[in-house]
């Protein structure tokens, strides 16, 4: 009994504390910061509509219907100038995170940004907002090793970049990705359109499709097969990624799935990129070695 308990504890510690290549964390950090900047740029033109008192939703109404505490920087930033200043401040933090400068502070600022605008403008939230907010929290609490950072020549000479970091952050990101897919499948089990195989047909006839039209009616059986196939693929991806020798099948399957969604849907490219950020947590040391060799050859 004692030996079994010790074995379980050692496996649990290994799941969260085993050293991994620090470059994987750097890769996730850079990708997350880049996608966050794209998301901020998409929100920027409509900042007055979304976040000011003169916008489409009154802040007091949002506060009234918020479950739990209402915590948002937009409680202070209420006019166009202050909202614009806060968005630029958050964008600057994303750039710092991208280049690995004051990474921990920058990650905290970016997480506060995601929580603030989710609280202030819940009506604008879509799938990738939720994914990015969860990823922001995981990046904030994860190790942020001094790797692939922008440093002066003197600083690079004084300290070599960290080579390893504990794996708990990557483990949590992997679990997050699995939860997203499994929750998506479970949420559809009582949906008549998904269970009846008609979802893809109705979706491609809607305004959300990139090319809506009656042409969809000619492919009813094929779209029924695609509807069920999407459920099977979303169920399979986490298991493929978790098995090291099958993970590239998981990568390829996930990329094809989200590329297909982005191709057939209107304005869902950010969802594709937000999910790919979590996929990067499944990279291994040999992948990073290969990437550095390729980058070295190009230079």
TrEMBL record:
It is a multi-pass membrane protein. The chain crosses the membrane at residues 22-41, 92-115, 221-243, 255-282. It comes from the Bacteria. SMART domains: HTTM. The keyword Membrane applies. The keyword Transmembrane helix applies. Keywords: Membrane, Transmembrane, Transmembrane helix. Its main location: membrane. Residues 17-287 form the HTTM-like domain. InterPro entries: HTTM-like, HTTM_dom, Sporulation_signal_mat. Pfam families: HTTM. It is found in: Endomembrane system. PANTHER family: HTTM DOMAIN-CONTAINING PROTEIN, SPORULATION-DELAYING PROTEIN SDPB. This is HTTM domain-containing protein.
């Amino acid at each position: 009994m004692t030996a079994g308990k010790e074995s379980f504890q050692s496996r649990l510690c290994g799941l969260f504390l085993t050293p991994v290549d620090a470059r994987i964390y750097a890769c996730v950090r850079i990708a997350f910061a880049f996608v966050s900047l794209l998301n901020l740029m998409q929100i920027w033109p409509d900042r007055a509509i979304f976040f000011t008192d003169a916008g489409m939703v009154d802040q007091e109404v949002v506060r009234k219907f918020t479950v739990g505490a209402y915590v948002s920087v937009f409680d202070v930033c209420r006019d166009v100038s202050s909202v614009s200043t806060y968005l630029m401040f958050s964008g600057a933090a994303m750039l710092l995170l991208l280049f690995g400068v004051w990474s921990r502070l920058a990650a905290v600022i970016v997480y506060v940004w995601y929580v603030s605008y989710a609280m202030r403008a819940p009506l604008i939230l879509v799938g990738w907002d939720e994914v990015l907010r969860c990823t922001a929290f995981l990046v904030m609490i994860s190790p942020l090793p001094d790797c692939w950072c922008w440093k002066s020549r003197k600083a690079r000479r004084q300290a070599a970049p960290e080579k390893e970091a504990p794996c708990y952050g990557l483990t949590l990101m992997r679990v997050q990705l699995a939860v997203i897919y499994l929750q998506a499948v479970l949420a559809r089990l009582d949906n008549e359109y998904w269970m009846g195989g008609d979802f893809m047909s109705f979706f491609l006839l809607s305004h959300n499709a990139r090319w809506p039209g009656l042409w969809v009616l000619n492919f009813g059986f094929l779209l029924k097969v695609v509807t069920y196939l999407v459920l099977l693929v979303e169920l399979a991806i986490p298991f493929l990624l978790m098995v090291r020798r099958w993970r590239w099948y998981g990568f390829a399957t996930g990329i094809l799935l989200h590329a297909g969604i982005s191709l057939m849907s209107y304005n869902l490219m950010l969802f594709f990129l937000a999910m790919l950020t979590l996929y990067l947590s499944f990279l291994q040391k040999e992948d990073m070695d290969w990437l550095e060799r390729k980058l070295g050859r190009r230079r």
